[in-house]
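Hi support team,

I submitted a single chain yesterday and got back a structure, but I'm not sure I'm reading the C-alpha cell output correctly. Could someone confirm the output below corresponds to the sequence I sent? I've pasted both exactly as they appear in my results page.

Thanks,
R.
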Amino acid sequence: MLDARVTEGPLVSIDEPPKTREPDDWKTRLGRSATSVAALVDRGVLSAAELQLLDAVESRHKTFVSDYYLSLIDPADSNCPIRLQAIPDINELNDDGRIDPDPTGDNTHRVNQALIHRYPNRVLLTPTHICPMYCRYCFRKVALNEGQIRYQKAVPAALEYIASKDQIREVILSGGDPLILSNKRLGGLIDKLSSIKHVKRVRIHTRMPVTFPYRIDQQFIDALGVSHRIYLVTHFNHPRELTPLAESKLEMMRNAGISLANQSVLLRGVNDRPEILAELYNHLADVGVRPYYLHHLDPAPGTTHFRVSIQQGRTIYRDLLKLLAGPDRPRYVIEVPGGGGKVDVDSGAVIEMGQPGRYRMTSPLTGESIVWLDPSA
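Hi R., thanks for writing in. Yes, this is the structure output for that exact sequence:
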C-alpha cells in the first residue's frame, strides 16, 4: 500500500495519452513518481539544504523513483539500504578516473542501437532505455541520457537480424526496463520473437517487481501469452524489497507458468554482509525464485561509493555459501572488461598477480587474458 507521501502530480508519458487511463492504472500510479531532486524535497525525503548540493548530481544522472519504493525507506536511517539505491547522492560525483562509460563492452558487440550480440547463441535486445527507477548504482547510467526514439526505430532491424541468424536460441529483453512498455507493445514484441523458429527462449530482465510491483497484473500476464519459452529475471538486492505486495506479484507470475530467477549486485552499504545476502536468497527460494547471479559491481560513472574490492567480495561470497543450501546459491560473477563475458569471481578465471588489486582475467568468449586493476583495492 502506498504511504501518505503519495500525491497527485503530472503524469509521466510512457506509451498512451493520460485520457485513456483508468484511475488505478499502473501508468497513472507510475506517473506520481518523483522525477527530480526538488520533488524528493517536497516529499520530505531530502532537506531543502540538500537541494542545491545535489543539483550537480542531477545534471549528470537523472532522478526517477516511484512512490511505492519511496514508501520502503526508513526515514530514521540515513543509511537505509532502500534509500541508498534510489536517492541521488553527492558521492556520485566522486569518480576516481578508473571508470568506463561502457564497462560491459556493449558498444563493442552492438549490432544497432537496440541489439547487442556478444555470445554466439543469444542476443540482448533493448527496446527502451527508460526505467521505473534510476538505480544509483546502474552500469548504464550514461545510456539513460540518450533519446528514446533511437531505440524504437532500431527494433525492426534488430528483429530482422535475429531472424537471419539461426544460431540465436535465446533473446534477452533488457534496457532500460522492458516492462515500461505498454502491454500491447511488449506482447507484440514477444509474439514476433516467438514466431522465429530458432528462438527457443525469451528472457526478460526487469526491476519492476522490486521498485513498482503494481506493473504486474492480469493484463500483463495475458499480454505475454505465457508459455514454457518465457523466463523472467528479477533484480532484488535486499530482503526489505521482498514486500508482501512484491511476493504476491511473484506468485501471480509463477502460477501463470513464468519461470523466475533473480540477479543481485553486491553493493557496499546495501548488502555487503553474508547474513543479509543469505536472508535475501533464502527468502527468494521460499517464494519460488531461483537465485541466479550475484554481480560484482561494474566500474561505471557515479558508482564509486558502492564498490567493494574483489578480495572483500570473495570473502563475503565464501561466507555466504556456508549459509545457503546448494540450489539456493547464486553464481558470483564479474564482467571481463571490454565485453569479454562473465566469469566466476572465485575461480581460476580471476587470478591475483602477486600485487594487491592486480588480477588476470580470462575471457570465456575468446580465451584471451587481460590484466585488470581493481578500482577498489
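A quick pointer for reading it: The chain has two domains: 18-93, 106-343. Let us know if anything else looks off.

Best,
Support desk
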